[in-house]
């Protein structure tokens, strides 16, 4: 047998082994996904309907200043595929999520934008983390305002939907795990964590922030929307008597292309769904989200681009017309 024949057989054998390993890995991930979805469904069924938050007060003034997102209102404000919103409800200020800082910059994009927009960290009354993903907590494994850099914060609560530790760079706040819908301050509440099994990353619990605006209704702030629009709508209807006035944030709709790539892999398309991404039924998610949000008849829908493609955003803009806004760093929304 010639050396060329031996080499050819070796190459074919190698390719066969690689293909078997790839398909075996995908099969294992698919099995884990199916089992995880069943466990989440059982967990939600066991929880049952949450206790209604019928009288948790209201606020008279409410605004949201985006500090981190994919688009900016003007240069030189920093942008990235992450989230951080400063929410001012009367005299109570909440920092929802703390961005990504994927490049490890010092100061981080969040701190640079805070300084440019005149935001004083000492005026923040609470941290609210929607979920424990790196583009929302600023670090792969610990909650932080700016990795690698100390930030002046008071000993304020840091509300999280799952156990987590603070970074040594920002040790002042105290971690409080939110396990169910909960009032955080007058007119301000967490709708409680809603679990979902995501492809590759496993079970993810995400909470959203609800503010009861006097004379208008509930303004809902969503970090990434991993809960899924349908479950989010079900939770809101179960909790509140007041109508939903506005919905702000991300709904994880990377249909046509996400914002975070690792080599050739579109990570947002891989980890954002509870279905296998081969193929990923992105357009179904877009139309389902539109239908779910329309059922609440909100007066304002402000969508984050950090986890939704321009194609998805265009469809939502068309669906909601003059009620639609794009969240942009530095462009404050007053409700």
What's this, in brief?
The chain has 335 residues and is an alpha/beta fold.
What does it look like?
Helix 6 (about 280-295) packs parallel to helix 7 (about 310-320). Strand 3, helix 2 and strand 4 (about 125-130) form a beta-alpha-beta unit. This protein has one domain: Metallo-beta-lactamase, Chain A (4-Layer Sandwich). The protein starts with a helix and ends with a strand. It is built from seven helices and 18 strands. With about 325 residues, the chain is of the alpha/beta class. The protein has a seven-stranded mixed β-sheet with strand order 6-5-4-3-2-1-18. A seven-stranded mixed β-sheet has the order 7-8-11-12-13-16-17, covered by helices on one side.
Please report the total strand number as a whole number. Answer: 18
Number of folding domains? 1
Along the chain, the helix and strand elements come as HEEEHEHEEEEEEEEHEEEHHEHEE
Q: In the CATH hierarchy, what is the architecture at level 2?
A: 4-Layer Sandwich
State the shape: globular
What is the CATH superfamily classification?
Answer: Ribonuclease Z/Hydroxyacylglutathione hydrolase-like
Q: Distance between the terminal alpha carbons, to the nearest Å?
A: 79 Å
């Amino acid at each position: 047998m010639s050396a060329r024949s031996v080499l050819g057989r070796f190459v074919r054998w190698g390719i066969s082994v690689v293909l078997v390993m790839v398909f075996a890995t995908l099969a294992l991930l698919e099995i884990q996904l199916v089992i995880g979805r069943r466990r989440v469904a059982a967990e939600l069924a066991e929880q049952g309907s949450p206790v209604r938050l019928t009288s948790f007060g209201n606020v008279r003034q409410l605004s949201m200043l985006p500090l981190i997102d994919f688009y900016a209102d003007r240069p030189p404000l920093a942008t990235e595929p992450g989230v951080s919103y400063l929410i001012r409800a009367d005299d109570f200020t909440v920092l929802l999520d703390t961005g990504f800082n994927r490049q490890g910059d010092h100061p981080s994009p969040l701190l640079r934008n805070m300084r440019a927009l005149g935001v004083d960290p000492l005026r923040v009354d609470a941290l609210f983390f929607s979920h424990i993903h790196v583009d929302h907590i600023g670090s792969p494994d610990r909650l932080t305002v700016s990795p690698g850099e100390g930030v002046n914060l008071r000993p304020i609560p840091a509300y999280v939907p799952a156990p987590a530790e603070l970074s040594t760079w920002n040790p002042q706040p105290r971690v409080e795990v939110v396990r169910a819908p909960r009032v955080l301050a007058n007119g301000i509440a967490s709708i409680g964590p809603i679990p979902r099994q995501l492809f590759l990353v496993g079970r993810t619990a995400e909470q959203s922030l609800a503010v009861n605006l006097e004379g208008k209704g509930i303004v809902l702030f969503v970090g990434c929307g991993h809960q899924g629009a349908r479950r989010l709508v079900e939770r809101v209807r179960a909790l509140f008597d007041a109508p939903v006035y506005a919905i702000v944030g991300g709904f994880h709709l990377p249909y046509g292309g996400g914002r975070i790539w690792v080599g050739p892999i579109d990570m947002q398309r891989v980890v954002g769904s509870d279905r296998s991404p081969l193929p990923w039924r992105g357009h179904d998610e877009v139309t389902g989200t539109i239908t779910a949000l329309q059922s609440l008849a909100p007066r304002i829908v402000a969508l984050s681009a950090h986890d939704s493609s321009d194609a998805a955003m265009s469809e939502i803009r068309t669906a909601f017309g003059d009620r639609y806004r794009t969240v942009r760093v530095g462009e404050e929304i007053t409700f």
